[in-house]
Amino acid sequence: MRALVVGAGAVGTKVSQQLLSSNTVDKILLRDVSTEKLGLASKVLGNRVEVEHFPFSKNMDADIVIIASPRGTQLEVVRQAISLRRPTVVVSDGLSETVSILNLEKEAFELGVPVVVGTGFAPGLSCVLASYGKTLLEEIEEIHVSKMGTGGPSCALVHHRALSRVSFGWRDDKWYKRFGGSGRELLWFPEPVGPQDCYHAALSDPILLHNAFPEVSRISAKMAATRRDRFTAFFPMLTPPHTEGGIGAIRVELRGIKNGIQENIILGVSEYPALAAASVTALTAEYILKQKINLSHMSTLGLIVEAPEFLSELSKRSIVVEIFEGDKKTA
User: Looking at per-residue confidence, does 246 or 269 come out higher?
Assistant: First the structure.
């Protein structure tokens, strides 16, 4: 089997490593506009990777397409993959582009193409945690996601801009807007991240969570930021981001009913965001290739996997879920 991985950054390279090390695929076809990134990735991945420089072939000679390229480049790749009827996994986290990709749902359905949208740290793992939390409650009324940290430079740029743009949330059957950088809230993440000030931001998590859980009355997403982050969000990034950021975390809080009383459940994961995103994406691709997911249309991760099993598989890759009290769970 062959996998086409679009994007040779921090996430794309790690996805390729995991697919090759698990022998899920025999070969990786790696595309990127950066010659430097392709050169570095080929040294890491060895002779089972074939690099493709820009301009790219219109063919996608692969059993699955994995899109881990920067914001603004993913929509056309998804459209092309659907037209060629290639199963597709998208690590999308940009708000506007995620909405545009979801608008291709009709084309994917008509051609019977499996497309999974949002398979990163958040969105992605956050959606699976929400799905798992749902099994612990009789009824979910609210889902609130928070995230801290970034993967590679492209992810850092998305987060930098998110604080200066409009945030969307779901409340009482309608979308509401908040200014990015507003709504300060001190939230606790799993160690070693700990407490962080979090703010509204232009994140795609509410869009994907509402798609998966339309019955939930309130959905929101915030991201951790410093005063400097909020101030500089309105300006271009003056300092180039690191190749890969430090330890990050996600936190998913569910509020609902259990045994007739109100109950809150908080789940979280701390890990390097690029590694976590790659693990979620690679495992999703493996599920599709091994036909553990019966999918012939576009969907989000929280709708198509059995959360306890998926989280158990992730724990084998050192992605461990924690409950608010601090007890580690492998779900």
Answer: 269
Written as one letter, the residue type at 210 is H
Q: 192: cis peptide before it, omega within 30°?
A: yes
Are 66 and 139 members of one domain? Answer: no
Cβ pair 286, 25 in contact under 8 A: no
- Same domain, residue pair 83 and 200: no
- 68 neighbors 7 (Cβ within 8 angstroms): yes
219-231 burial: b if 16+ Cβ within 10 Å, else e: bbbbbbbeeebbe
Q: What is the CATH number of the domain that holds 321?
A: 3.30.360.10
Average pLDDT on 268-288 reads 96
Where in the sequence is the domain holding 133, given as residue range(s)? Answer: 125-274+311-329
**How high is the pLDDT of residue 13?**
95
The predicted structure's pLDDT at residue 210: 96
Model pTM score? 0.93
On whether the CB atoms of residues 20 and 12 are closer than 8 A, the answer is no
d(CA 303, CA 205): 14
Q: How many CB atoms lie within 10 A of CB 84?
A: 16
CA 175, CA 221: separation in Å to the nearest integer?
A: 13
